[in-house]
């Protein structure tokens, strides 16, 4: 053990390291002068070294904080405490409980900000102390002062192996299609109505050419694009509401973000639905919430409207998301749900309402075949994301040797040659399990299918499952596939859509 004591026993997750980072409360890069240790409110904060209390009080940034003098030009600081247990001028011993963890001052959640300063210069605290240096508080005989129950924090990164295993087990495309229950779209006129709301005034501008509405699988807001002729009678600005109604069905509700004007008087307008605001960054610490409850919490914080939010069931015990986009914060929760429940949920905007649905509830009675698809692009390749041999290396510190785990498909190696994936395993992972999972997932062709100019169906959005019956040459698709990307184009006479599909032997 070093002469320094770990300041927060049983809490070892560094949620924000020492050094430069993206600003949390200010834009741009900032220098973080210490380390942040994620911990539960009320957890003990210990003096890292014997010394004298220089400051025990309040600051706007640190909240409740303590500054200790250890002599020889060395001091330490402890910020964001819930309560202070010492006062200025008091002498403390190494390992003495001096405060409790909180979230006071400029803080996004309960944690300890810990600094070590040498001769006026901040140093990386982890160069002085490790979690192995934890000691009991100053009165270990008193049960009330013993270290509290460990608070389990999820890593900000989702377990890739578990995620891939769960995703591969969904097998969306194995659901058989009763082709008597699916329907082909027919060509027909469309009554397309587009409105722009500027305050209390509603305009119905004349649209040039076409309107396009695009949705993506995840991490991207729904987008509406159209062009109008400049008209002094139609005034609007960024932030104004745009609504799209086709044949009496409300399809899009969003806000103007971009307008581009040219010399000829054409105005190109781009609007996004509510999901655009999930590109904002923030830091969240939450406990005992499902992914659905997290969506509702974020929606409340950012003044977004919610519609149908599925009960995602899996309760996330605790989670830290530091300086992440709201998209990533939600997606990490959905990925954890996928791992534990084997259920995949899709987040989208349904005409101004955030909606979260199980992908199984988004299957449509829509058929795409050679007659309804004007053109398609199909790619079958082993050039990327295909591996028939997986090698996982692990450096065993106990033996001082490198262990290598290999799994391979001799049949595919004979046919394709050796296509090897290599990875160095992290501590705590199962190398054999990881190698087997990777081989199962990637030992196959990568197939990509895009279909252009399909007769449109207003119900189809990213995340929908549709029936596909296509002869692709080296294989026939005759099952449900998931829409990864869809672009709808509307005129007064025609509705078409471009699709990117995934599922089955197709890559996810």
Q: What is the assigned CATH homologous superfamily of the domain at 14-145? A: Glucose Permease (Domain IIA)
Shape: flat
Radius of gyration: 29 Å
Number of strands: 33
Question: Termini, distance in Å?
Answer: 49 Å
Tell me the helix content: 10-25%
CATH fold-level label of the domain at 14-145: Glucose Permease (Domain IIA)
User: Which structural class should the secondary elements be placed in?
Assistant: mainly beta
Topology overview:
Elements: E1 14-16, E2 19-22, E3 29-32, E4 35-38, E5 44-46, E6 51-59, E7 63-71, E8 74-84, E9 91-92, E10 97-101, E11 111-118, E12 121-123, H1 160-170, E13 192-198, E14 201-203, E15 207-216, E16 223-229, E17 241-246, E18 249-261, E19 266-272, E20 281-289, H2 291-301, E21 306-309, E22 316-325, H3 326-341, E23 345-349, E24 354-358, E25 363-369, E26 373-381, E27 389-396, E28 401-408, H4 410-416, E29 420-424, H5 431-442, E30 446-455, E31 465-471, E32 476-490, E33 495-502
Helix pairs in contact: 1-3, 1-5, 2-3
